[in-house]
Amino acid sequence: MDKNVKIEIRNITKIFGKNPQKVLSFLKEGLSKKEIFEKTKQTVGLNNVSFEVYEGEIFVIMGLSGSGKSTLLRCINRLIKPTGGQILIDGQDIVTMNPEELRRVRRVKLGMVFQNFALLSHRNVLDNVAYGLEIQGISKDERHNKAIKAIENVGLKGHEESKITQLSGGMKQRVGIARALANDPDILLMDEAFSALDPLIRNEMQEELLALENRMQKTIIFVSHDLDEALKLGDRIALMKDGEVVQIGTPEEILTEPANSYVSRFVAGVDRSKILTAESVMKRPEPLVSINSGPRVAIQLMKDYGISSIYVVEGKNRHLKGILMISGALEALRSGKNLEAAMFLEAPRVAPDRSLNEVIPLIAESQYPLAVVNDSGKLLGIIVRGTVLGALAIAGENGQNEASKERNPEKKTSEEKTLEERNVSGKTFEGKPAEKTVLIGKNEGEAGPPSKSSGVPNAQNTIINNGIDSESVPINNRTDIESVPINNRTNIEPVPAELTAKESLGSDSGQEPEVKTC
Amino acid sequence: MLTFRLPVGDTVELAVDWTEANFGPLLDIISKQLDFLISSLKNALLFLPPELFIAGIFLLAYFVGKRNIKLAAGTAIGFFLIENMGLWTLSMETLALVLSSTLLALIIGIPLGILSAKNTTLSRILKPALDFMQTMPSFVYLIPALIFFGLGNVPSMIATVVFAMPPAIRLTNLGIRQVPKELIEVADAFGSTSWQKLSKVELPVALPTIMAGVNQCIMLSLSMVVIAAMIGARGLGYQVLLGIQRVDIGMGFEAGLSIVIIAVFLDRITQNLSPR
């Protein structure tokens, strides 16, 4: 992403009350919002908020009602004048502007979309959308042309002459968005823009906003109290509480590295299946069998791993060819066919960027593991039921794990430490301290695509030599459908030392399975 | 309780006398202007023969009343009845007085309403004044009006304006204050000037409430114009007064019925002018 700073917010403070200076001095002394209210009857709306918004990103300001998020948004176009601090838009401080300059910036650079649509019901759709142009004194023809384009842009073509009262909620907000776009501003301020819509329409509007953002590349500041919405829309999210920013980060950072217990409580209820992707829950695709191998190799691998199906790949790029069942392999062995003839070509597969809630139905229907395959057909990893459940459970247990860590610090075994080290090298979505990700985190760490595991570029390509690894079968791979959730919940149990040792060995050895024979 | 009497009445009398003595010439000028306004309007209304006027009023009611044929027909029949009772000229005089009083009340009242919506101090000052104006028995206004402007249409008009103006101020103030905050934010967020905000957002959104004030203003004007016959207002009110003095029930009823017809007509027209 282009990292040009578009809006810079520096130490913004807003006091609602008659004597803000007094409150400012209390704030410096470190009094809480509540204490200040009891003493002075004045409310601290925003306390020393600073952040930057980059050009072209969707920046979500999230928080519960009363957290100051709407106040903050209104400070950016100075519908509310901050008590102190600076807000630089393209380097110009909007806080100190005179009315004339302020009007110009509002007309040219800032568009705003409101929660309850805030349309002028005495005007039709076209004149509502043209409002911002009309007050700039733009001629009727020109402003109507621009307004018609904006209306087309939000998918309301043909409704130009409709009355506002004839429109549904979703259509009204489209008009609201078109009105904000008609001026062609650089920045869109959206105040709970979809909160008044019913869930289906809200979802649709969110998708369309993302599509719109793709086309137009505006800088969008979106205020929301809905975490799912924030996670879906936001390139970055600022979580606010009591007029202060608690954490700023990408949706993944907010979910996986909550800055404090407030954030982890806030994110506790989130539907992770929407956020996690196939890529982030898949595990290392092993064992694999080369398409050039004979059925005997495949059978031996399946036997060693205690599994009944195996993915068949071709070449070093692990181009997915199909899936081979144990019955097919035995049949092939008897009749002397090669693997290509015995395998199923229609292996269930999914793209790495699919969200987990799209993956779940697929894996529920399929009796085989799900192959995660990129555009060029390379097998990146596999997803079994256990990994999905484990990922959801782990992500949901952040808070509890933190507590258990404090209670049992001495239980951190050497095995876990080893795993922790391994985790560092394979940075993943689940990039949490190792105690939380004992088994699954490890697998995922190595199953990720090459770009994500900078430390050990060859790790994913490594497929463990079955001769060495045979004893680790019950815990490793396919059979961990059962073992994963259990291990996750009772993760203070030491992992067998041999597993750790072999896993490390496997990662470093770099042997290719395609070349081995029985 | 107190051993002496507080000179409330005397003070008011003094103030009125002082105003009369010091602003006499100014009051004369105002009087002439207003008289001109009323008589021009009256002449304009009487310019058309009744048949044409009724035809015009039928069309007006039809189109303003969103093509409601019943309203149009009722209006035409009502005005035909007035003509038939021989009260046409008197009715037009009353209508002229009502319309010019309402016009003046709105010219003063609506801007005052807007200002008091913008300025809380002004609205705090205006509130008791408006309460006073509305609760003081309307007859009382006749006395200072009589002193300042003598007998005739002009003092009647002044008394009527004072009596009819409060709802226009109040409802304009209310209408603008009730404009949703988000709409004000829209106006500001898109960079409107204060005038653009007022003319393109606040007034249009407040229009239904303001129109309710206009309607109230007209109705109060009409009721006051009848009472103002006591200080020389011409028209139907005078006819009612004559009916009382002569104990002529028929005469009083016919004049009263004409007032009702005009009132209903004005009410329906203004209600239909208002959006929604």
Automatic annotation (TrEMBL), chain A:
The keyword Electron transport does not apply. Residues 451-478 have a biased composition (Polar residues). Coiled coil: none annotated. Keywords: Amino-acid biosynthesis, Amino-acid transport, ATP-binding, CBS domain, Methionine biosynthesis, Nucleotide-binding, Transport. Gene3D superfamilies: CBS-domain, P-loop containing nucleotide triphosphate hydrolases. One of its GO terms (molecular function) is ATP binding. GO terms for biological process: amino acid transport; glycine betaine transport; methionine biosynthetic process; response to stress. Residues 399-518 are annotated as: Disordered. Residues 403-435 have a biased composition (Basic and acidic residues). Residues 31-267 form the ABC transporter domain. One of its GO terms (cellular component) is membrane. It comes from the Archaea. The keyword Repeat does not apply. Residues 282-339 form the CBS domain. Transmembrane segments: none annotated. InterPro entries: AAA+_ATPase, ABC_osmolyte_uptake_ATP-bind, ABC_transporter-like_ATP-bd, ABC_transporter-like_CS, CBS_dom, CBS_dom_sf, Gly-betaine_transp_ATP-bd, P-loop_NTPase. Belongs to the ABC transporter superfamily. This is Glycine/betaine ABC transporter ATP-binding protein. It comes from Methanosarcina spelaei.
From TrEMBL, chain B:
GO terms for molecular function: amine transmembrane transporter activity; carnitine transmembrane transporter activity. It is a multi-pass membrane protein. One of its GO terms (biological process) is choline transport. CDD domains: TM_PBP2 (cd06261). Keywords: Cell membrane, Membrane, Transmembrane, Transmembrane helix, Transport. It is found in: Cell membrane; Membrane. SUPFAM superfamilies: MetI-like (SSF161098). This is Glycine/betaine ABC transporter. The lineage of its organism: Archaea, Methanobacteriati, Methanobacteriota, Stenosarchaea group, Methanomicrobia.
